[in-house]
Please model this.
Amino acid sequence: MLCCFGSMFKRHDNRIDIIDALRGVSILLMVVYHFGYDMVMYGRWPDWILFNPAINTLQSVFAGVFILLCGFSCRYSRNNPRRGILLLTLAAIISVATYLADTPIYFGILHFLGVSVLIYSAAPKFFSRVPPYIWISLLILSAAALYQINSSLSVDIPGLWILGIPDSGFYTADYFPIFPWLFVFLFGTWFGGFTKEKRMPEWFYKTKVPVISAVGRHTLLIYLLHQPVLYLILYLTGCVK
Model:
């Protein structure tokens, strides 16, 4: 299992169900969002149903929660470099498949997570010593700086899209640049260390969330299969010709 998708979180012999449940909720909301996206793209729903300030905000919030939990889980992994490489391998396969389908994904969630896991793997002891307020401060500052750059300045340099500054010709169907999302991920690594030291209340480790936590233990499989399954459903119901 991958450290970022449904990995093992143990307290003695038990997983931390509440973390699995949060991941499960996040992945299910992602599936719902992508279903809505497909319906809009194929002209079955009007654009405003999906592309509005409320949905955009919720999409960012739950994506942030998922990324934070991915950082969290890396504190419990025994081999983050291997998992980072595996994530990037799967991301490359997705890039090729989506390019052939004319809906390219050049730096989506898997690409971002693979890079983030490898960044963390390069110096885990260093990152573990950074206080959480540093990551929160860097998140706010980087988000503000990128907003200013992308909305007010004319920067059209190819390749900066990986950092959060897309050029005028850049397009990707899924986009999670390194900044500002890396700081959400790194905050998650701090939170993972905090819980691993048993500093959370006892209920955090003992709460059981059936069904949803089971979903959260299989998020990689759900992520890889959900779009083909959604497309098949849309095809069989006549939404796609």
